[in-house]
């Protein structure tokens, strides 16, 4: 530091101060405004970029909220469609069971009617066969009975006895 004090020259100091003042004046006159404008533009650009980032962030939140809402709506619609499909399935199954029950009842009634008619036909056939057999047996018995005159007389008297007059 002592050497600086020993080498100090007032003329040089004044000259350097004058050059510095001239440089400051030139800078203030010509360079200060463009530098300040550039700094202000840069500051404005940064501010606009921050605003744009904030707007993009809000837009992303809106898009996210919209997509979440759409997803919820799609899920609700899917659930409604599944519920409707289950209801339709249950209705179809119920209708099919009812129709099958009705068809089964109808078939049972038809089978019962067929069995009843076949039973009546069988009973009628048996009655006819019994009647034929009875006639044949009666014919043989009567032939046997009527072959003898005394037996014929007795049969006629028994039959007359059975008949009641009103």
Beta fraction of the residues?
Answer: under 5%
What is the subunit organization of this protein? Answer: single chain
Largest sheet: none
Overall spatial form: rod-shaped
Strand segment tally: 0
Order of helices and strands: HHH
Content-based structural category: mainly alpha
Ends: how far apart? 180 Å
- Which stretches are poorly predicted, pLDDT < 50 over at least 5 residues? none
Structural commentary:
The chain is mainly α. The chain is about 95% helix and about 0% strand. It is built from three helices and no strands. The chain is rod-shaped. It starts with a helix and ends with a helix. The relative contact order is 0.02. The model has no long low-confidence stretch (mean pLDDT about 85).
Layout of secondary structure:
Elements: H1 2-6, H2 10-146, H3 149-162
Summarize the structure.
The protein is mainly alpha-helical.
List keywords for this structure.
mainly alpha
